[in-house]
Design goal:
- The radius of gyration is 21 Å and the shape is globular.
- It is mostly helical.
- About 75% of the residues lie in helices and about 0% in strands.
Length: about 450
């Protein structure tokens, strides 16, 4: 039986899916790695791998979801009944549950900074942001409260459903994301010495490419598109049978790359103009950038805009993480969406508390040399997501009937037959091999 939920339009589906893909990693991690891994040369590699790895996987998940009209777990059951392939769906649900538990902690930090920006609680001097960040993440009560606020926003949107919740909010947040970026880029590029940052970010330098940066480009190509956790299986199950799958998939890949480039153009010209050293991770978002904005005209306003932008990106990703869990458990238990969203959200909040306290009361706890927060991040990003992506590529190319794949992808258009042939070859032979190489690298075997 097909699900009752449906996207009201293709653009709604594209914006929601792009919102799922465009998260913190695409906005702050990818630009930084690009700048230190060959600039434009790395961007070229990332584009190639996105088309050869991320794009085929994205299409594969689209086909699984749209062909069955079911959420992740039920979709695999429908295609391969009386088998254990549906555990791919369970793996995706578990991964998203765990991912949102610590992702919401970062979302809480952003809300804390937004609150401080509005109320005048930010440091008066630029050199006070290190202490402010340490105080913010080290206050047990505050981090839990702001984590809860972030999750409540996510729950409220998902509880409203696909059309009235996720799609409606994505149609507002994604255009706002682009608009905020444009405003920030214009301001950033007009600063004196801004071109040094543009050069750092975009100038091709093939001599800076290393085997590590090549492997990162391969891994990022599917991590940054929300593939490997069956989110796109659930999202595409709400898509009309009349819609062609190629266009939205290409649109999502293009938007993800475009946003990553916009992020770099917004960040690095300002950072270099004011003489700061670019750094990745929390330091860039919560220490360096506030210090930069503090030194330009109307800096507090631009900082507020930038934090709003990051919050939008974080929330649109969070919606998809919660949706896959809610959709799966609604299907299995038959309970209402609203009630299920609140129950699951509460469970995610409780599981996320140890990650939230990793920088304060639980800072002494170490798991294989990593904090609770970093351990959860490593498990999701480096173990669960690659395994999920590998299993999906094998399932689609070896378990699903080739005629069904062709029918879903080309919809009777003979002009697309060559595209199908290339996609199927990539999905069966290239994608699994690349994922195995990346996985062996991140766990230290090669």
């Amino acid at each position: 039986m097909m699900q009752n939920e449906q996207w009201s339009s293709k653009i709604g589906f594209i914006l929601a899916s792009a919102g799922s893909a465009i998260g913190l990693g695409a906005i702050w991690k990818l630009p930084y790695v690009t700048g230190n891994s060959g600039g434009g040369a790395f961007i070229l590699l990332f584009l190639i791998f996105s088309l050869l790895i991320g794009f085929p996987l994205l299409l594969g998940e689209f086909i699984v979801g749209r062909s069955t009209g079911k959420e992740a777990i039920s979709a695999y059951k429908a295609i391969a009944p009386k088998s254990r392939w549906h555990w791919i769906g369970y793996l995706g649900v578990f991964t998203c549950f765990l991912l949102l538990s610590f992702y919401s902690v970062i979302g809480g930090w952003i809300i804390k900074y937004l609150f401080a920006s509005v109320t005048g609680g930010m440091p008066a001097e630029a050199d006070g942001y290190v202490a402010f960040f340490n105080q913010s993440v080290g206050n047990p009560l505050e981090v839990i409260i702001f984590q809860a606020i972030f999750l409540i926003i996510t729950i409220v949107v998902v509880a409203r459903g696909v059309q009235q919740g996720i799609e409606q909010i994505s149609k507002i947040m994604m255009p706002a994301l682009f608009l905020l970026f444009i405003v920030l880029i214009v301001r950033s590029l007009t600063l004196e010495g801004a071109m040094a940052g543009v050069t750092f970010f975009l100038k091709p330098d093939f001599s800076s490419l290393t085997s590590e940066s090549v492997l990162y480009a391969m891994g990022q190509s599917f991590f940054s598109l929300s593939v490997g956790v069956s989110v796109m299986v659930t999202y595409s199950s709400y898509l009309s049978k009349k819609e062609n799958l190629l266009q939205p998939a290409l649109s999502i890949v293009a938007m993800n790359l475009f946003i990553s480039i916009l992020a770099g153009l917004a960040i690095f010209p300002a950072v270099f103009s004011l003489g700061y050293e670019p750094e990745g991770g929390p330091g860039l978002l919560f220490i360096v950038l506030p210090s930069v904005f503090d030194q330009i005209v109307f800096g507090k306003v631009f900082l507020l805009l930038f934090l709003s932008l990051f919050l939008f990106a974080t929330l649109t990703s969070a919606f998809s993480m919660l949706e896959i869990v809610v959709a799966a458990l609604m299907s299995n238990k038959g309970k209402g969406r609203g009630r299920m969203a609140w129950l699951i959200g509460a469970a995610i909040f409780l599981v996320g508390i140890p990650s939230a306290l990793s920088f304060s009361t639980l800072s002494e706890i170490s798991i294989f040399g990593k904090s609770i927060f970093d351990s959860a991040d490593f498990l999701v990003s480096n173990i669960l997501m690659p395994i999920g992506a590998l299993l999906i590529s094998i399932f689609v190319s070896y378990k699903m009937k080739k005629d069904l794949l062709r029918s879903e992808l080309i919809q009777g258009k003979k002009s697309l037959s060559l595209i199908f042939t290339v996609w199927f070859f990539l999905m069966r032979y290239v994608v699994p091999l690349v994922i195995i190489i990346v996985f062996l690298d991140v766990v230290g075997f090669i």
